[in-house]
Amino acid sequence: MQAARKALETGKWATMAASRRAKIIYKIAQLIAERAGEIALLEVRDNGKTIGTAKGELSAIVDTFEFYAGAATKNYGSTLPAPVPNYIAHTLLEPVGVVGAIVAWNFPLLLASWKVAPALAAGCTIVLKPATATPLTALELGKIALEAGVPEGVLNVVTGPGSELGQAMVEHPAIDKIAFTGSTATGRRIAATAAQTLKRVTLELGGKSPSLVFADADLEAAVNGALYGIFYNAGQTCEARSRVLVQDSIYDEFVARFGERAQKLRVGDPEDAQTQIGAITLEEQLEKIAADCRAGEKEGAKRLFGGTRVAGDGHDRGLFWNVTAFEADPKHRIAREEIFGPVVVFLKFKTESEAIEIANDSEYGLAASIWSKDISRVNRVARALRTGTVAINTPYAVFPGVPFGGYKRSGYGRELGFETMRLYSETKSVITYVGEKPINPFGV
Ligand code: NAD
Fold first, then answer.
1. CATH topology of domain 210-392
2. Which entry of 204, 239, 338, 415 is annotated as an active-site residue?
3. What is the pTM of this model?
4. CATH code matching the domain that covers 2-205+410-430, chosen among 3.40.605.10, 3.40.50.620, 3.40.50.300, 3.30.70.2190
5. 415 carries an active-site annotation
6. CB atoms within 10 A of CB 392
7. pLDDT tens per residue, range 95-114
8. Contact 249, 215 (CB under 8 A)
9. Is residue 238 annotated as a catalytic residue, yes or no?
10. Are 276 and 320 in contact (CB under 8 A)?
11. Residue 17: is it exposed, middle or buried by C-beta count within 10 angstroms (0-12/13-18/19+)?
């Protein structure tokens, strides 16, 4: 933290020509692209995700650094209308200072890139803390940044437990802003602690995001999209579409097709390119998934398939969970609380307004998907949903350049957008008197 402070105060990074900073950030993207294969494998071995997923992330990480390399030269202030005659005013966007970036274990390098790239582009210095269990790719990023020409002290990577090291970062007076991705419980605690030093805070937290499937949807596309929406990354995804709301007239057919497809998903060895569902990253996460499934059955939700650990064929050596589905009532806890695993909950609705009501009846508001061919409906529903992202007829909804973040208890602030640059900047207003006569307010 002191290294980051010192690097900030020398001003070497922030006052460097923005075009030069942009080239260095672009170089980071190039170096990551060159080593994408080996970094993806490192992520797989650290995290347990599939190699296919990790390769996709590496490509998104390269895009993220490229996007913010471009943003570095465009963090414009404004020229303001004269507030009174003989005055001109403009604003400067200056780096917010030292950024403490703290991230979760589900997308270790991807989540780090969402913070490091805009922070570097805005001229900030950074202390990056990856999750305790998945530190390896963040350390690689630190090395790559130095190689790309980022001055020493600008990007510092520290590893260790959140309760001690993360907590110390949030308390530390040398840090000006905390950019956090993790659970809502930790986010709440971080916001409270950061208030003591009035740090700026952005929070990307949990979710219980819905897919809304209307009877007029392309059923085939909706089944495949909803399947990917929950089982991608073994469901360990903040924006996982863990609630699937289906209109009553197509409910039985949809659930049957979904179940049939789900059985075909290959769960197992993350390094095998054919595998679609990799491991659960942490033993305690596997235990949480098991406990949530047991609690779901106990409260009366109907288990349709899965709900058990994968056994046999060498699976016992790893942390694998069978893809799981429940049919539930919106009041069931299993339909309300984040599980963070390959567990989907089906809910039935009759009308559009009921679908919106169920979808919005959540403390979270990260993302939602709508499946329908009716252009008026999708636009009507997109406006009614209280979520940071709405994906229409597509399972893909996260791209560099498109703001990503939550409503309600899914957090505040946005990542990935150009507007994110503002969250790593302070606005300075510069007011100049240009009149010929000197001002003498007291007339003395
Ligand atoms: P977590 O909150 O337990 O940990 C996240 C990070 O915070 C880790 O680096 C951890 O070491 C650190 N940490 C823990 N206690 C801390 C403290 N007191 N002070 C400072 N740092 C502390 O979350 P997790 O279990 O690693 O990740 C899963 C959660 O992250 C899920 O809720 C998921 O939805 C959320 N998530 C959100 C997004 C998003 O963009 N919205 C993306 C991925 C994951």
1. Aldehyde Dehydrogenase; Chain A, domain 2 (3.40.309)
2. 204
3. 0.97
4. 3.40.605.10
5. no
6. 15
7. 999 999 999 999 999 999 99
8. yes
9. yes
10. no
11. exposed
